[in-house]
Amino acid sequence: MAQTLASKRPPVGNFLGQPIYETITSHNGTYVFDRIARSIDGEFPLDQLGKDELLIRPGLIYRPLK
């Protein structure tokens, strides 16, 4: 099931035409932008994610806000 993500703040940048928000919120909590994922042949290997991190299209990795 897809998660609904939201941000109430303006984007801090963009990547491949999509906004990068400093923080996003889902029903699981608040996440902060950490880095851009490595792309290999147009795919994003999941082994680059840490525990509880989210990969959001088009390749943005968010970590839980502590």
Structure description:
- The protein is mainly beta.
- The protein has one domain (13-64).
- 0% of the residues lie in helices and 39% in strands.
- The protein has no helices and 6 strands.
- The chain has strands at 13-15, 18-20, 23-26, 29-36, 54-56, 60-64.
- It has a 4-stranded antiparallel β-sheet, with no helix packed on it.
- Strand 5 (54-56) and strand 6 form a beta hairpin.
- The chain is globular.
- It starts with 12 loop residues before the first strand and ends with a strand.
- The mean pLDDT is 89.
Write the layout of secondary structure elements.
Layout: E1 13-15, E2 18-20, E3 23-26, E4 29-36, E5 54-56, E6 60-64
Antiparallel strand pairs: 1-2, 3-4, 4-6, 5-6
Brief synopsis:
By secondary structure, the protein is an all-beta fold. It contains no helices and 6 strands. The N and C termini lie far apart (25 Å).
Main sheet attributes: strand count, strand direction, barrel closure: 4 strands, antiparallel
Structural class: mainly beta
Percentage beta strand: 35-45%
Roughly what is the average pLDDT, rounded to an integer? 89
Q: How many structural domains?
A: 1
**Termini, distance in Å?**
25 Å
- Measured as a percent range, the helix fraction is under 10%
Strand runs, count: 6
